[in-house]
Amino acid sequence: MNHQIKFMSAAEAVKCIKSGDHIHLSSVASAPQCLIKAMCDRGRNGEFKDVHIHHLHTEGPAPYADPEFEGVFQLDSFFVGGNVRKVTQSGYADYIPIFLSETQKLYRSGAVPCNVAMIQVSRPDKHGYVSLGTSVDATLAAVECADHVIAVVNKYVPRSFGDAMIHCSKINYFVEDDQPLEEAHFTTPNEVETKIGNLCAGLIEDGATLQMGIGAIPNAVLAQLGGHKNLGVHTEMFADGVLPLVEKGVINGAAKNIDKGKMVSTFLMGSQKVYDFIDDNPGVLMMDVGYTNDPFVIAKNDKVTAINSALQVDITGQVCADSLGRKFYSGVGGQIDFIYGASLSKGGKAIIAMPSITNKGVSKISDVLTEGAGVVTTRNHIHWFVTENGAVDLYGKSLQERARLIISVAHPSAQEALDEAAFNRYGSHHHYIKGYMSK
């Protein structure tokens, strides 16, 4: 270990937090759990109040968002993760709507203050550098802007390259805690997800640069790409699904214009295999979210193919991806960053992919979005739309053509009602042919 580092306990380190402070927590698999616990112990003892907490989504417990800490902690997250969804929906926590690309700008511009950054890092190397490992995102900006930086040095944090490397001199307090990182395991895609995966994979060309989110549909897409050539990765995150393609040489980054031969990401979420994969791997660059998610940087590669999901889509092509009606479910994330970036890329394809109905049998395609639902991707941004029933390109299509195309990939049980709604909306001019789809 590097001799300049003086370790202290988590309880000592969090003594720098005072009432009214804004705290940034490193995100996803990298949330510094021992510091969170020590901070909550101080909060429970009434040592401070009105402390604001910010982060992207985190894996693992988020006790500071519990109702017991009302008046002590206020969580204003940049994305509503599953662990804080209920408390956010019931008003104990809140959400700051923001493009993922701009989360770093909140700190760098001073729009959101950062008094204390609580991060997790790898062990230092002989030059005194540590790595942010699996999460650079807005954390690098928080480190640059914070009055105090507390770092948990953890042997399980992989030594990743790119913007992840920071010098120990940037850190004020060091705590040692070797806890395995939170892992995320994904279910095997079901029949519907596999169909969607097939259709998306059919849109991906050799030499494409890929962005896709997390979960069953991205995994289903990746599982279909074994026969492709020279794929690249420039994404906000990746998980286990890419590893077999890297091993096969399908993902090699050879056709990229920028960061050729490198996989670029800003955070990761997956099993220990993914964390091991990026450790000491010069083929992976973990970059600032202001770089990975900048639409104009994304567009520098050709054939950027971005695959994102949605909660609801209306017949004009408006995409709701952050809320179920008035209830916030997730966040804007990087959807617009990549949809726009892919559409600016030469030969790029922006894809919204989702099952046509919910598990409860409700159509996710509707005449109008549910009252209170937010438009994340506007009808002007949408290009390709994919459900298990087909893939349609909405770019350059009029409202009536769009309605027909969108209804054509809706669930058969919903098509008649959607047709009726479209006819009522457009039919007075006789262009919209009722029953067009059912014939």
Report on this structure:
By secondary structure, this protein is of the alpha/beta class. It folds into two domains: 10-176, Glutaconate Coenzyme A-transferase, CATH 3.40.1080.10; 191-429, Glutaconate Coenzyme A-transferase (3-Layer(aba) Sandwich), CATH 3.40.1080. Helices cover 25% and strands 19% of the residues. It contains 14 helices and 25 strands. The protein has a seven-stranded parallel β-sheet. It is globular. The termini are far apart. The model has no long low-confidence stretch (mean pLDDT 96).
Number of domains: 2
Give the radius of gyration: 23 Å
- The percentage helix is 25-40%
- Name the overall outline: globular
Query: What are the segments in which pLDDT stays under 50 over at least 5 consecutive residues?
Result: none
Summarize the structure.
The chain has 439 residues and is of the alpha/beta class.
Q: Which descriptors would you attach to this protein?
A:
single chain, Glutaconate Coenzyme A-transferase, 2 domains, six-stranded mixed beta sheet
Secondary structure layout:
Layout (H helix, E strand, L loop, with lengths): L9 H4 L8 E4 L7 H12 L6 E4 L18 E5 L7 H5 L4 E2 L7 H6 L7 E6 L7 E3 L7 H7 L2 E6 L7 E2 L2 E3 L5 E4 L14 H13 L5 E4 L3 H8 L8 E2 L3 E2 L4 H6 L14 E3 L1 E2 L3 H7 L5 E3 L2 H4 L2 H4 L5 E5 L3 E3 L4 E2 L2 E2 L2 E2 L6 H10 L4 E5 L11 E2 L17 E4 L2 E4 L5 H10 L3 H15 L13
Parallel strand pairs: 1-2, 1-5, 2-3, 3-4, 5-7, 7-10, 8-16, 11-12, 11-17, 13-15, 14-16, 17-22, 18-23, 22-24
Antiparallel strand pairs: 6-9, 18-19, 20-21, 24-25
